[in-house]
Amino acid sequence: MSELRELGNKSIIIFAGRVLGQVVTFISVIVIARLLGANVYGQFVYLISFLAIFTIISKLGIQNGIVSFLSRNSFNLRQKQSILNFSLRTAALLSIIVVILIYANKDFILEELLNNIEYENLFLLLIPIVIFDTLISILRSSLVAYRKIKEITLVDNLFNPISKTFLVILLVMVFKIENYYALVIPLYLSSIIGIIYYIIKIKELALFGKLEKDFNHIQIVKFSLPLLFTGVVIIITQNVDKYMIGYMIDAKNVGVYRMAIQFGTVSSIALLSVNTIFSPIISGLYFDNRISELKKMYQITTKWITIINLMIFGMILIFSKDIMRIGGEEFTEGAMALIIISIGQVVNSIVGSVGIINTMTGSPKLELYSGSVAMVLNVILNLFLIPIYGINGAAFATAIALLTNSMLNFSFMYSKLKMHPFDKSYLNLLCVFVVSVTSIYFLSDIIQVHYLVKILGIGFIYSIIFSLLIYRFVMSDNELRILKSEVNKRINRN
């Protein structure tokens, strides 16, 4: 029960932080879209998406491996210091080598892989971000292993988006920098400050120390290598759509599609929030042979992840065009892509943290297998669908790939642990979704007001109706008792 309470409390912290971070990020995207246009934003997204593949290679999968190793009670402090030392040295060296290779082959990359030599200046400016992102990822994973959720939330979801937004506005509005420098400068400044902050927090944990010569560091590499390929697969799957849109169509469509992804993946906040704190808990419960507790936590978290995803999907289904209009009229053509992307997120949420469970229970190769199938499928579908359907084709390809990955990961997990999250409450949840969306859809069609007023006002009514129906028809007696107990504790504490 203590792990469940910790998972719930810290997931709420992360969820709240991610929501606030998304709000700030939306503001930033809207500022960029309106002041710099879809073309400049699209170029930046296009190149960042391309470089993400090299970043994941330089990490060697260690950023996931150290979460498992540092969260195990079987290692003492000196061994954990050695693990972090080895991980940082390895990742830093690899990232430097990768950056040198990119610079050495820049002409080939620009002409053959990016299909546009006009991106040269921006591309050269962005290449070093591979080193920064690699170091941030390793340092961040160390804090994840020690469940330092508030610290991570502060940097990832508050400081980074707020500082970037402030700097973009400052550079555009005050210094009149209306090109990609308004995006590059905030990116590097926030990265440097983030690294410094993480180093300070890790020092407080006394995790910096010498390499232990008698410690078998190769086991970290062996555990992490499958995660490297898994990471490559995930990054390609997440970015191949944007890359192929930029290669086959133009940067403007990349910008529109990126806006659709920004809104369409907001529901993934719930799953990502749970995964952040759930991953070390999974490892601890599994290796302590507390499988029944792991099963209970999986069932509860998956149900609530699905509830949150369906609630947000309902909003997107009703207000898709109005939501895209926030970025400007040129972005409304991405309304259908927004809906398709959101459907993929809902399907992904239904099976919960299956990929993380496979990895943290000692089977990282399973996530690699499922991810590889999804990646190949995604690339093939994008090749065929983008030339015909444009960004809607890319959205459909991504949704199908996400569905495939989730179902394969779930089948692997079920065959190993014999657990699933489903019960009759899921049928009630589906009915609640249909009733809520149908009633609000007709209401929004009748009321003709400014699109922002419609999103906020009618969206609020929808949220209330959905929440009340969930409370009445979906929550179990045990969940109601836990909810009332937590509410009373917070009231008494205040």
From TrEMBL:
Xref: InterPro entries: Poly_Biosynth_Transport, Polysacc_synth
Pfam family, one: Polysacc_synt
Record key words, sorted: Cell membrane, Membrane, Transmembrane, Transmembrane helix
Membrane topology designation: Multi-pass membrane protein
Keyword Nucleotide-binding listed: no
Subcellular compartments: Cell membrane
Keyword Membrane: yes
Membrane spanning residue stretches: 12-37, 43-62, 83-103, 123-146, 158-175, 181-200, 220-240, 260-288, 300-320, 335-356, 368-389, 395-414, 426-443, 455-474
Chief site of localization: membrane
GO cellular component, one term: plasma membrane
Protein name as annotated: Flippase
Provenance organism: Sutcliffiella horikoshii
Phylogenetic classification of the source organism: Bacteria, Bacillati, Bacillota, Bacilli, Bacillales
